[in-house]
Structure to design on (305 residues):
């Protein structure tokens, strides 16, 4: 942040001091990207022109007053694409190769020969066709998997997915998939899209991966569906309540992999987030177009989908 400190008055604050720090501020770097404090402090934003959030998802700050204002909102799109794609490939391999059971058997000192699955040729539906979804698609295709996408509009000539289905037809296309990866942004249209009906449409043996937002899923419906075997397993990196409550059945359910919202967090990610903001600050200061400008009505940075 030193180059920025040399060019501007910089105030550092925690949530409880945000309102005071916002008075007279032109720009806000929301480094705590899970914080919802901006809504409560919004009335103090008397000259704010730009908000940058240190995440790809912008739902914590898309309250009506900001959405309807002239304040420009940018995000950190591009920082997490490769690492989240690696996470998705990793958990798919973990399921196919039964790594969790191998670790359990090793701890028990048991030699139990088993057969495992190939991932090549398995069908994957990636729900969310933004940059992260596209990177996931390319990585899974490189591993030999058959990947299709789901977005706002259907098409058959997408360079990364080939076929993209309309999200309005989610349940129709779930039944033929071996893996379903949720990476859609959280909007009014996507909230709760994975509910009892969606899980019932999955075929026996399917696996579900959520690296998007916890609120994409109706958690109670997912728990019931896992108990019924549709999906057969789930890798969950995000939850509607975080941290995941200690009494959640998801902690101990067989076939469930829980990680604490870390799929994109690789060594050096915090530095990369600051560097992206610093580059955007230089653009803003010189009057050049900002990177990653969010369409506040859609809830994400448009990318042709």
């Amino acid at each position: 942040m030193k180059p920025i400190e040399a060019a501007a008055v910089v105030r550092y604050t925690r949530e409880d001091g945000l309102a005071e720090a916002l008075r007279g501020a032109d720009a806000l770097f929301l480094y705590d990207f899970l914080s919802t404090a901006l809504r409560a402090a919004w009335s103090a934003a008397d000259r704010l022109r730009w908000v940058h959030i240190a995440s790809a998802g912008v739902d914590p700050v898309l309250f009506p007053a900001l959405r309807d204002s002239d304040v420009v909102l940018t995000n950190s799109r591009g920082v997490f694409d490769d690492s989240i794609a690696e996470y998705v490939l990793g958990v798919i391999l973990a399921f196919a190769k039964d790594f969790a059971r191998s670790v359990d058997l090793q701890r028990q000192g048991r030699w139990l020969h088993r057969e495992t699955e190939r991932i090549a040729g398995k069908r994957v539906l990636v729900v969310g066709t933004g940059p992260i979804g596209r990177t996931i698609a390319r990585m899974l295709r490189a591993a030999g998997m058959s990947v299709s996408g789901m977005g706002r509009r259907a098409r058959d000539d997408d360079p990364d997915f080939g076929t993209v289905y309309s999200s309005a037809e989610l349940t129709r296309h779930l039944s033929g998939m071996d893996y379903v990866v949720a990476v859609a942004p959280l909007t009014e249209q996507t909230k709760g899209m994975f509910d009892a009906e969606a899980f019932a449409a999955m075929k026996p043996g399917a696996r579900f991966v959520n690296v998007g937002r916890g609120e994409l899923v109706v958690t109670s419906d997912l728990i019931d569906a896992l108990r019924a075997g549709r999906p057969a397993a789930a890798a969950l990196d995000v939850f509607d309540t975080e941290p995941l409550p200690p009494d959640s059945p998801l902690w101990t359910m067989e076939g469930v992999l829980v990680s604490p919202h870390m799929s994109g967090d690789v060594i050096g990610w915090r530095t990369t987030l600051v560097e992206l903001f610093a580059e955007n600050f230089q653009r803003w200061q010189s009057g050049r177009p900002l990177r990653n400008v969010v369409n506040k009505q859609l809830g994400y940075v448009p990318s042709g989908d």
Remarks:
- The chain has a mean pLDDT of 97.
- Residues 269-286 form the longest helix (18 residues).
